[in-house]
Specification:
The chain has 19 helices and 2 strands. The chain is mainly alpha-helical. The chain folds into 2 domains: 361 residues, Sodium/glucose cotransporter (Up-down Bundle), CATH 1.20.1730.10; 93 residues, no CATH class.
């Protein structure tokens, strides 16, 4: 075996030992929410690592588009996270919101909750991250894609099966250290070998240092709306409910944002260095190709392990959230209060989620395609109903509003994909599909809310 393969195997074994070290108690609070005892360091470690599962896609986008990547995948999300900490976290904790489907059921109806649950599953689908983890395993071990997808998924969820959310948090602490170590190493090596700002300003393609670069402002702005998915991100809700206090949650989100700023600097500029050093027609992910070219064997092994750590930290978290959405929330809604063991259901949900995610990962060519499609539909359907309910002015006739916004966004999205120009979707009036969906949802809420208020 090569040094990279040995290092990857050692890392996987350590993660499994950490994850399987302690079995979770059998009650739901302990298994799904870590007993609501997350301290500040644990909260920060699990939130920061879960945020970055799409690391290989960041490398691809920053290589081909440069600094604007920091805006669409960074700045918009910082703003959304700040707003979440200040305005939503207190309401979530005071309302005792554990999961989004449970909240929709309480505020609206069983039908609205089941409808919303479908889009919660889209938001937290581990498929894009499983696709990247499979790509890394395929790169390291030279095995077929299907085998890599299955192996990566199995390793990432086996400890969650027995240890629950506490096992996920334990592994996140290690992965937090590895993710920063790997990118400090590769960016530091690039700077020491090639030079700093002067080198990239002279050698990187001009568009990599320009805004909006290769994108239009309209396309960039739509990612600002997709960043609002933070407001309806089940991972944020779970971690808020698992925190040991509101102070821990709000302070933890603030500290996490600082770490995200630093890590985005490392990842985006590593991509720009790759654009300055490597030919434009590379075959493979820019991070992987750059590591092959500039890192000695031991450093390259550490960097590849750090990439695995980034992706696995999100695969296990998102798979776990999807699992308890299927295994806890759905049965509670369908069975209407009849006895159901949420821990047993979540464990069953882990298997179902893993199989579905592997299929989706194999179907889509790029993770960004999954984020864009699922984010567009989920924002259109859930954003207004969730926020209006949290502000105690819930949408009237929510199923009508949610289904109408879905229909409009879906038709808009389908039109664009079937009428492409130079490989890009051509949407009606040049408008991205999230906007008409949100417009329908907002109009529905305004008209019906005013109508019902007038009756009072």
């Amino acid at each position: 075996m090569t040094l990279v393969q040995i290092s990857a195997l050692i890392y996987v074994l350590i993660v499994l030992i950490l994850g399987l070290a302690k079995r979770s108690p059998g009650d739901m609070e302990s298994y799904i929410f870590a007993g609501r005892r997350l301290t500040l360091p644990a909260f920060v470690a699990t939130l920061v690592t879960t945020w970055y599962g799409g690391i290989l896609e960041i490398g691809r986008v920053s290589f081909y588009n440069g600094i604007v990547t920091w805006i669409i995948f960074g700045v918009f999300y910082y703003v959304a996270a700040i707003l979440f900490a200040v305005y939503l976290a207190p309401r979530i904790l005071s309302s005792g919101v554990r999961t989004i489907p449970e909240f929709l059921h309480r505020q609206y109806s069983r039908g609205a909750a089941i409808f919303g649950l479908v889009f919660v599953m889209l938001i937290v689908s581990p498929a894009p991250y499983i696709k990247m983890l499979g790509g890394l395993i395929e790169h390291i071990w030279s095995i077929p894609e299907w085998s890599a997808l299955i192996l990566g998924t199995a390793v990432s969820v086996v400890y969650a099966f027995s240890g629950g959310f506490q096992a996920v948090v334990r592994t996140d602490k290690l992965q937090f250290v590895l993710m920063f170590s790997g990118f400090i190493l590769i960016l530091g090596t690039a700077v020491s070998q090639y030079g700093g700002w002067h080198f990239i300003s002279q050698n990187a393609p001009p568009y990599t240092l320009e805004v909006p670069g290769n994108f239009s402002w309209s396309f960039i702005l739509v990612w600002g709306f997709i960043a609002l998915i933070t407001f309806i991100d089940p991972g944020f809700y779970q971690r808020c409910f698992a925190g040991n206090s509101l102070r821990t949650v709000q302070k933890g989100i603030g500290i996490s944002i600082l770490f995200w700023v630093v890590f985005d600097f490392l990842t985006v500029f590593t991509g720009i260095y790759a654009a300055a050093i490597l030919p434009a027609d590379i075959s493979g992910n820019p991070y992987l190709v750059l590591a092959e070219q500039i890192l000695p064997p031991a450093s390259r092994a550490l960097f590849l392990v750090s990439l695995m750590a980034v992706v696995m930290s999100t695969v296990d978290s998102f798979t776990f959230i999807s699992a308890y959405t299927l295994g806890k929330d759905l049965p509670e809604l369908v069975r209407s209060g009849k006895h159901w063991n949420p821990v047993t259901g979540t464990r069953l949900g882990l298997s179902v989620t893993a199989v579905l995610a592997i299929g989706i990962a194999y179907w889509f060519p790029h993770a960004m395609d999954i984020w864009y499609t699922m984010g567009t539909l989920a924002i259109a359907v859930l954003f207004i109903p969730m926020l209006s309910a949290l502000w105690r002015k819930p949408m009237k006739a929510p199923l009508g509003g949610m289904s109408s916004s879905l229909l409009v966004s879906l038709l808009w999205l389908s039109w664009g994909y079937y009428h492409q120009v130079d490989g890009w979707p051509a949407y009606p009036l040049g408008v991205e599909p999230v906007y008409p969906g949100l417009a329908v949802s907002l109009t529905w809420w305004i008209i019906l809310t005013e109508k019902f208020l007038d009756r009072k």
